[in-house]
Amino acid sequence: MMKYLYQDSVKLPNDRDFIHDLETLLDVTAAVVPLEGEIISANKEVEESHRAKDMKIAGLKTFESNVTMHLNELVMEWRHRRDTSLQECNHRGMCILRRSAEGKGRF
């Protein structure tokens, strides 16, 4: 057991076996280092899974945006066709009314 800490002949303040404490510290360090490596590895796996999830979410958002854009295009096209058909029907209806008013009576 060590009696003096700094080799200056001043006794240690308490009765401690520093060699044993250092051995214990080395034992604990030897046990902790592999665990730390496992934790770092596990954290990397979590980060990779988060990145993969974020990429999937980005892909789904892109898909949603594309579907919304195409649906809007289809709706606009349908509305244009509907409006064109209504205009044609109105035009035909006006022609029929004009002919009827003129007395021709044939459609």
Please supply descriptive tags for the structure shown above.
107 residues, single chain, rod-shaped, mainly alpha, 79% helix
Largest sheet: none
- Mean of all residue-level pLDDT scores: 84
Rg value: 43 Å
Helical amount: over 70%
How would you name the oligomeric state of the polypeptide chains in this document? single chain
| Terminus-to-terminus distance | 122 Å
Beta-strand portion reads under 5%
What global shape is seen? Answer: rod-shaped
Secondary structure category: mainly alpha
Beta strands, count: 0
How would you spell out the order of helices and strands? H
Low-confidence stretches: none
User: What is the count of helical runs?
Assistant: 1
Short description:
This protein is mainly α and 107 residues long.
What does this structure look like?
The chain has 107 residues and is mainly α. It is built from one helix and no strands. The longest helix has 85 residues, at 18-102. The model has no long low-confidence stretch (mean pLDDT 84).
Secondary structure elements and their pairing?
Blueprint (H helix, E strand, L loop, with lengths): L17 H85 L5
